[in-house]
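Quick start: read one record
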Amino acid sequence: MERGGIVTPAKKVLVVSGKRKTAIARAVVKPGIGRIRINKTPIEIFEPEIAREKIMEPLIQAGDEVWKQLDIDIKVSGGGYMGQAEAARMAIANALLKWTKSTHLRTAFVDLRKAFVEYDRTMIVGDPRRKEPKKFGGPGARARDQKSYR
């Protein structure tokens, strides 16, 4: 791109999404210094702790050399806190895969995909399970009102 006689290189940005139940996460990846934010909150102070650990899984599996040169901003909406954490985790994992593929780290890409699948397949591939709809005649999808003959 040319702006006022100065040639600036095109900035590389990736947008990847992840879903879990009704939670949807959108990750924006760009070159940086290893900053990861979930809904504008740094991952280091993200609460609850169990959700933070879930989100950190793909980063730990990938290793520092892959994600320490990236900034990842994640926006998550819908679902509960754990569904959101798993959606964010899926977005991060897919973002790392896409980024390593586009930066021609071919061996790293193959190893990364293999590592993710070995650790937990749902990091890359979504879980299709959804809540079954409630039917008439009872309080839930399968439960029925009790009846008595006495």
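The CA atoms of residues 48 and 126 lie 23 Å apart.
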